[in-house]
Amino acid sequence: MDVTTNQISVEKTKNTKINDVDFNNLSFGSIYMDHMLVCDYKNGAWEAPKVVPYQPISLDPSAKIFHYGQSIFEGMKAYKDEQDTIWMFRPLDNHKRLNLSAKRLAIPEIPENYFMEGLKALLKTDSDWIPQSPGSSLYIRPFIFATGLGFHASPADEYKFVICGAPSGSYFSGEVKVLIEETYSRSANGGVGFAKAGGNYAGQFYPTKLAQDKGYQQVIWTDDNTHEYIEEAGAMNVFVRINDTLLTCPTSDRILDGITRKSILKIAEDEGIKTEVRKIKVQELVDAAKDGSLKEMFGAGTAAVISPIAGFGFRDNDYMLPTNLENSYATLLKDRITSIQYNKAEDKFGWRFKV
Ligand code: PLP
Ligand code: COI
């Protein structure tokens, strides 16, 4: 069954919280807009999505989400331009990736039409929640989790798909230093690393806390087999500039195939920047930091946008990167991608989506 935006029922809140929000001073993902989209999977099918007031979800203690962690999510953003038009960035790619995650976690896939029309109905209802202040946007969190009951270790028979949103500023509040991790692994061959499964993040919290206690903000994960190659950071893919070449490692079943990452590669090529997608040895980074050819590192992701990395720690040594670099790739690429996202530049790759 297909739905159109107008067919999605909307129950409006009587208690808007919008007047309590300081839109010029937003942190990341900590205030939630008035409404959410909900859609239940029962009797082998997704029911019609509906927009309802943002509210707690009541669950039975035997719901399988609590026991077996069947839970996946996406991260997207909506932007409002000076004419009050709402834009999204490659949302169909998020839908595709949500379904890739769903398949791997034995969760029923959500039809594209439900996802896109539900998203549009929600954004139209809460359009006042999309900030216009510079650097801000509405961070959108679609997620699906198992509501079906049972202690039997098997997929649930019922699920809930929800989309909620939070007007947000920067993900990182200050300098980002990363620790290259050699003991713990984020993911393994044949595992769920490529999926946006909630458990992938839970598994990172303890090693990340250890790194934070040492003064780093994020961990850069290395391959679980040899720990010799960098893979990605906790919430973003990683780019490295050695001399004038921009490098990032190939995606695999251990790494999230970031939408920002692939967009940045395309924009860099368009700018005439030499790019290489290849495995990157930790030792290569250490050597390049020592001889000065390591010019930049940055993370790329929806929440992180492009976040410059100030330096990295590896085996009790810190390697700091040049500051105030002229013609920084991170600055150029961030400017190009955000100009497309905020409808300030030509969308030559057809990525912008008008809501
Ligand atoms: N890697 C991880 C582990 C992430 O959580 C994210 C964020 O979604 C990314 C990479 C970047 O992906 P995207 O650019 O699609 O947001
Ligand atoms: C995103 O960038 O959308 C993410 O999902 C990262 C998240 C851990 C904040």
Secondary structure blueprint with pairings:
Blueprint: E1 9-10, E2 35-42, E3 45-46, E4 50-53, H1 64-68, E5 71-73, E6 76-80, E7 86-89, H2 91-104, H3 112-125, E8 137-146, E9 159-168, E10 177-180, H4 198-213, E11 218-222, E12 230-233, E13 236-242, E14 245-248, H5 259-270, E15 274-277, H6 282-291, E16 294-301, E17 305-308, E18 311-314, E19 317-320, H7 329-341, E20 352-354
Parallel strand pairs: 1-4, 10-11, 10-18, 14-15
Antiparallel strand pairs: 2-3, 2-4, 2-9, 5-8, 6-7, 6-8, 7-20, 8-9, 11-12, 12-13, 13-14, 13-16, 16-17, 18-19
Helix pairs in contact: 5-7
This protein binds pyridoxal-5'-phosphate and 2-OXO-4-methylpentanoic acid.
The site of 2-OXO-4-methylpentanoic acid has 6 residues, from loops.
Characterization of the model:
The chain is of the alpha+beta class and 355 residues long. It has 2 domains: 3-169, 2-Layer Sandwich (D-amino Acid Aminotransferase, Chain A, domain 1), CATH 3.30.470; 175-330, Alpha-Beta Barrel (D-amino Acid Aminotransferase, Chain A, domain 2), CATH 3.20.10. The chain is 24% helix and 28% strand. It has helices at 64-68, 91-104, 112-125, 198-213, 259-270, 282-291, 329-341, and strands at residues 9-10, 35-42, 45-46, 50-53, 71-73, 76-80, 86-89, 137-146, 159-168, 177-180, 218-222, 230-233, 236-242, 245-248, 274-277, 294-301, 305-308, 311-314, 317-320, 352-354. Strands 1, 2, 3, 4, 5, 6, 7, 8, 9 and 20 form a 10-stranded mixed sheet that branches. Strands 10, 11, 12, 13, 14, 15, 16, 17, 18 and 19 form a 10-stranded mixed sheet that branches. The chain is globular, with a radius of gyration of 21 Å. The mean pLDDT is 96. The protein binds pyridoxal-5'-phosphate and 2-OXO-4-methylpentanoic acid (COI). Residues 75, 232, 235-237, 256, 258-261, 301-302 line the site of pyridoxal-5'-phosphate (PLP).
